[in-house]
């Protein structure tokens, strides 16, 4: 999430998606509508956000979109001292906190997806992540004793939500919520809803790498994203066409540190308190709902290939691209929209079929 690039004639956005890092490149070569093309770049939620829409009122609409992002950030940020999440964490084990409908909705979704993924997605894992230093300047491997002490604080059953009274309560002192694995997806859904309500039928945007396409390009073709090679930041393994959906990627090779010759990445397995270790390098989720795509990209990465594949087999509302050290796997719903281009990098490719 540290580098982006704008080209002049045909815009290309290089980004690291989700909590992760697979570089993606959105390519746009419209054959009409240039006079109605409007672009904007802003910084919010600790990341760069970029927008392209086609409308004669695009400039004003993009101002509305930025204001919506700022509004949600002030509800959901962990670091802003006046945010609802900051107050909720500050009052953990002490008292309930009144929260907005949006915060209640997102906390409920976070808990629900956590249960659905058997805890592989966990909005309460923040104390463990902090112990590793991924939210601090200095990163280090914590003692096992510290991990054992903190893991009980990551039980989402201890997040009590009272929808009738509009309150939330973290039952144990030391608990903390971090919505970094879902908040940008939720914001993308809200921004897309706003853009469509204001008449946008063609556009796309990237919220720190969470891609969302609205409609198609002005020439009627789909948007295209280059799915990056986790082993080479300057390379990609294929092109994905998408429209009216989100594309969110998670991987462990962008945010990491090394200690005693071993690399540790930032995606923590809630079952162990350690960075997830399996054959996956990256997972890209394609889903109409950006909130779900955001959370599932993390959960599937934590699961590992076999369990993630089994999870996909049981659900029909999303598709996935899995990347290992030597293989790229696209689920069958992407057969006609993903073009593999990684042969020169010793990757093999296959389509995962539904049973």
Description:
The chain has 355 residues and is of the alpha+beta class. The chain is 26% helix and 31% strand. It has eight helices and 19 strands. It has helices at residues 58-76, 84-90, 101-116, 126-132, 144-150, 183-197, 290-303, 305-313, and strands spanning 12-16, 23-27, 37-44, 47-54, 97-98, 159-162, 167-170, 202-207, 210-215, 223-229, 232-242, 245-251, 256-259, 262-265, 280-287, 318-324, 327-331, 338-340, 348-352. Strands 3-4-8-9-12-15-16-17-19 form a nine-stranded mixed β-sheet, with helices on one face. Strands 1-2-10-11-18 form a five-stranded antiparallel β-sheet, with no helix packed on it. Helix 1 packs antiparallel against helix 6, helix 6 (183-197) runs antiparallel to helix 7 and helix 7 crosses helix 8 (305-313). The longest helix is centred in the first third of the chain and has 19 residues, at 58-76. The two termini are 36 Å apart. Mean pLDDT is 90; it is low at 1-23.
Q: What is the gist of this entry?
A:
The chain has 355 residues and is an alpha+beta fold.
- Shape summary: globular
The largest sheet is: 9 strands, mixed
Helix content: 25-40%
Q: Measured on Cα atoms, how large is the radius of gyration?
A: 20 Å
- The H/E string reads EEEEHHEHHHEEHEEEEEEEEHHEEEE
β-sheet strand percentage: 25-35%
Mean pLDDT: 90
Number of helices: 8
Kindly report the oligomeric state of this protein: single chain
Strand order of the largest sheet: 3-4-8-9-12-15-16-17-19
End-to-end Cα distance: 36 Å
Structural class: alpha+beta
User: Number of DSSP strands?
Assistant: 19
Unreliable residue runs: 1-23
């Amino acid at each position: 999430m540290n580098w982006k690039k704008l080209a002049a004639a045909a815009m290309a956005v290089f980004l690291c998606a989700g909590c992760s890092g697979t570089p993606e490149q959105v390519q746009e070569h419209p054959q009409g509508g240039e006079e109605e093309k409007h672009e904007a770049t802003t910084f919010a939620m600790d990341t760069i956000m970029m927008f392209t829409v086609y409308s004669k009122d695009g400039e004003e609409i993009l101002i509305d979109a930025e204001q919506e992002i700022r509004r949600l950030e002030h509800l959901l940020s962990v670091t802003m001292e006046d945010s609802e999440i900051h107050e909720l964490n500050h009052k953990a084990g002490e008292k309930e906190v009144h929260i907005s409908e949006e915060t209640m909705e997102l906390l409920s979704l976070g808990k629900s997806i956590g249960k659905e993924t058997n805890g592989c997605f966990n909005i309460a894992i923040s104390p463990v992540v902090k112990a590793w230093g991924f939210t601090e300047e200095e990163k280090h491997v914590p003692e096992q004793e510290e991990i054992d002490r903190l893991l009980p604080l990551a039980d989402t059953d201890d997040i009590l939500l009272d929808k009738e009274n509009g309150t939330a309560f973290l039952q144990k002192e030391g608990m903390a919520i971090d919505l970094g694995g879902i908040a940008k997806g939720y914001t993308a859904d809200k921004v897309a809803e706003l853009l469509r309500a204001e008449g946008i039928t063609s556009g796309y945007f990237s919220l720190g790498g969470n891609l969302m396409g609205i409609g198609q390009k002005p020439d009627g073709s789909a948007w295209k994203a280059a799915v990056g090679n986790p082993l080479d930041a300057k390379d990609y393994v294929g092109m994905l066409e998408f429209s009216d959906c989100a594309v969110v990627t998670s991987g462990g090779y962008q945010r990491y540190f090394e200690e005693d010759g071993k690399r540790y990445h930032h995606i923590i397995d809630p079952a162990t308190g350690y960075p997830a270790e399996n054959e996956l390098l990256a997972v890209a989720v394609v889903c109409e709902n950006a909130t779900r795509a955001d959370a599932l990209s993390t959960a599937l990465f934590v699961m590992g290939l076999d369990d993630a594949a089994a999870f996909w087999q049981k659900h029909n509302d999303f598709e996935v691209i899995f990347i290992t050290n030597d293989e790229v796997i696209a689920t069958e719903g992407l057969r006609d929209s993903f073009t593999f281009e990684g042969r020169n990098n010793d990757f093999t490719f296959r389509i995962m079929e539904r049973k």
